[in-house]
């Protein structure tokens, strides 16, 4: 597997875009590699997993507008 440089922002965006999906593509491999070597992103990913677990447990639906504001606040919008 070739090594590529992926940024923390790209990791966060990919995590948010692919929540709940089982991805096995090259980008997913890059993200996994980055998470293994970046303590900040690893912590971010863990917090996202915990948040998703809570939302699934209580079946919380986030309105589209709120999702958009959250993505903007995190700097993850395109």
Distance between the termini: 28 Å
Give helix and strand order, one letter per element, not per position: HHHH
Q: Could you state the oligomeric state of the chains shown? A: single chain
What integer is the average pLDDT?
76
Helix content: 55-70%
Choose one word for the global shape. globular
Q: Could you say which structural class the secondary elements and strand pairing correspond to?
A: mainly alpha
Uncertain stretches of 5 or more adjacent residues: none
The strand count comes to: 0
Radius of gyration: 13 Å
Number of domains: 1
Question: How much of the residues is beta strand, in percent?
Answer: under 5%
SS element count, helices = 4
Summarize the main sheet.
none
Characterize the structure shown.
With 78 residues, this protein is mostly helical. It has one domain. The chain is 67% helix and 0% strand. It has 4 helices and no strands. The longest helix has 20 residues. The termini are far apart.
Gist of the model:
This protein is mostly helical and 78 residues long.
């Amino acid at each position: 597997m070739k090594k590529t440089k992926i940024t923390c922002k790209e990791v966060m965006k990919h995590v948010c875009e692919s929540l709940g999906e089982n991805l096995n593509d090259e980008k997913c491999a890059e993200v996994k590699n980055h998470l293994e070597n970046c303590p900040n992103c690893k912590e971010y990913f863990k917090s996202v997993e915990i948040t998703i677990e809570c939302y699934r447990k209580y079946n919380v639906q986030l309105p589209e507008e709120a999702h958009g504001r959250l993505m903007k606040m995190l700097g993850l919008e395109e």
